[in-house]
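User: Could you go from structure to sequence for me? I need the amino acid at each position, not a summary. C-alpha cells:
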C-alpha cells in the first residue's frame, strides 16, 4: 500500500526523535513537510531530515498530506488539533491529548463527524519493557494483581529543558506533562479508571532555568500550577493505584529511590521499568524471594517515539482497532484533570469518559512495525 504522507507541526525538542524514527524506520509513512510558528525551527528540522519547510497554513492546505503530527506545546494541542481536523486531515498529538475535558471531547467529536481519526501519545506503553509487564500480568505470574504504587519524583524540567516555563503553566505541571506516561501505562495494564481522589501542593512560587547550554540559564520564572500531587485511582477492573508526581524533589528523575511503578499480586510483585522509556528492566519477585530480572527482548527497547503514529496509520489503512486511539488520550486527560479538581475540592471524582484496554503486542514485531 502507498505510504501515508504526513506533515509535522511543532519543530521543537521532541520533533528530532520523531523525525528520525518516522523518516528512517517506520514502514507505512512518509514525512513530507514540517511547520512551526517559528520559521527558523521548521527550516532547521527540514534541512536535517531532507523534508520541506512550510508555513502552518501551507501544510494544512497541502492536499497530499493526509495526517498531521501535532508536536506543539500542550495548550496548543487542542486548538492546532481542531485546525488539522477542520483541514480534513487525521491528527496524532503529543501528550497531553488536550488540556481540558471540553477540548478533548471537541477533538473526538469533530474527528468522528468528519470521518477522521484522532490519536494520542504516549506510545511508550507499546515498548518491549511495558509489554513484558503486560505479558507477566496476563499469564498470572503474580497471581491476581490488586494494587499498584507509582512515583514520578524529580527536580523538574528546568534542569534539562532550555525553555521550561510552559511546563509550569496552566495545562502543564508534573501531572499534565509526565502524568500521561504513568496514567497511560496504568490504563494499558489495568484498563480504564472509574474514580480518583487527589491532593496537591505548590512548594515553590518561582523557579530558575538551570539547563546546561540554555542561553537563558539563570533566568527566573513563575510557577503557576501545583507541583507536588498525590492521588488514588480506582479502576473499573477493581485494581487500585496510588500515583505521586512532583517537580520539587532535589533529585533527578532517575535518581529517586522510589520505584517507577510496582504492581502487587496475591503471589508476587512486578517492578515496572521507567514508563518514559521503551525498555526494561522488568523485575519479578515471587513469594518471599528476591527480585529477579526478567529478560526483555525485541526490536522496541530504544527510543521508538512514533510507533503509536505507525500503529494509527495501520488502523486507518486496515480499519482494525489500534492502540493509541484518542479515546485513551481523552480518558487520560480527564483522569489528570479530575485528580487536580479533586485536590481543590477535597472529594473523590467519578469519571465521565472511558476507553478500551489496549490489546497486548507480539514480541516478534519487525523494527519497521507495519509496511501497509
Ligand atoms: N522535550 C521532551 O523531552 C518531550 C518528550 C516527550 C513529549 N514531549 C511533548 O512534546 C510536545 C513538545 O515539546 P517540546 O519539548 O518539543 O517543546 P518545544 O517548546 O521545544 O517545541 C514546541 C514547538 O512548537 C512550536 N509551536 C508552539 N505553538 C505552535 C503553534 N500554534 N503552531 C505551530 N507551532 C507551534 C514552537 O514554536 C516550538 O518550536 C509537548 O507536548 C511535550 O509535552 C516533549
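Assistant: Here is the amino acid at each position, in order:
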Amino acid at each position: 500500500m502507498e505510504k501515508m504522507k504526513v506533515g509535522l507541526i511543532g519543530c521543537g525538542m521532541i520533533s528530532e526523535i520523531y523525525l528520525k524514527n518516522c523518516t528512517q524506520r517506520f514502514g507505512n509513512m512518509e514525512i513530507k513537510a514540517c511547520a512551526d510558528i517559528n520559521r527558523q525551527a521548521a527550516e532547521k528540522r527540514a534541512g536535517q531530515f531532507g523534508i520541506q519547510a512550510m508555513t502552518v497554513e501551507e501544510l494544512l492546505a497541502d492536499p497530499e498530506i493526509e495526517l498531521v503530527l501535532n508536536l506543539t506545546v500542550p495548550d496548543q494541542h487542542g486548538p492546532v488539533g481542531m485546525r488539522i481536523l477542520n483541514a480534513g486531515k487525521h491528527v496524532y498529538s503529543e501528550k497531553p491529548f488536550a488540556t481540558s475535558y471540553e477540548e478533548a471531547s471537541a477533538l473526538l467529536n469533530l474527528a468522528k463527524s468528519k470521518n477522521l481519526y484522532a490519536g494520542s501519545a504516549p506510545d511508550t506503553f507499546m515498548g518491549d519493557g511495558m509489554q513484558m509487564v503486560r505479558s507477566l500480568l496476563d499469564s498470572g505470574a503474580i497471581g491476581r494483581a490488586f494494587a499498584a504504587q507509582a512515583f514520578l519524583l524529580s527536580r523538574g524540567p528546568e534542569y534539562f529543558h532550555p525553555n521550561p516555563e510552559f511546563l509550569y503553566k496552566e495545562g502543564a505541571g508534573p501531572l499534565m506533562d509526565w502524568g500521561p506516561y504513568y496514567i497511560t501505562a496504568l490504563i494499558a495494564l489495568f484498563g480504564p479508571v472509574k474514580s480518583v481522589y487527589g491532593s496537591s501542593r505548590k512548594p515553590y512560587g518561582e523557579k530558575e532555568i538551570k539547563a546546561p547550554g540554555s542561553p537563558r540559564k539563570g533566568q527566573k520564572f513563575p510557577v503557576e500550577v501545583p507541583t507536588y500531587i498525590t492521588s488514588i485511582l480506582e479502576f473499573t477492573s477493581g485494581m487500585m493505584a496510588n500515583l505521586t508526581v512532583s517537580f520539587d524533589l532535589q533529585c533527578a528523575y532517575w535518581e529517586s529511590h522510589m520505584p517507577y511503578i510496582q504492581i502487587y499480586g496475591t503471589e508476587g510483585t512486578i517492578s515496572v521499568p521507567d514508563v518514559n522509556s521503551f525498555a526494561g528492566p522488568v523485575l519479578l519477585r515471587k513469594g518471599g524471594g528476591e527480585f529477579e530480572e526478567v529478560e526483555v527482548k525485541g526490536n522496541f527497547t530504544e527510543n521508538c517515539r512514533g510507533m503509536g503514529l505507525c500503529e494509527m496509520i495501520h488502523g486507518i489503512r486496515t480499519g482494525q482497532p489500534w492502540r493509541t486511539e484518542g479515546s485513551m488520550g481523552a480518558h487520560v486527560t480527564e483522569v489528570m484533570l479530575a485528580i487536580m479538581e479533586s485536590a481543590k475540592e477535597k472529594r473523590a471524582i467519578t469519571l465521565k469518559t472511558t476507553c478500551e484496554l489496549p490489546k497486548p503486542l507480539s514480541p516478534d514485531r519487525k523494527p519497521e512495525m507495519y509496511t501497509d
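One structural detail worth keeping in mind: The pocket of nicotinamide-adenine-dinucleotide is lined by residues 9-15, 36-38, 41, 56, 71-74, 76, 80, 94-95, 163, 177 (CB under 6 Å).
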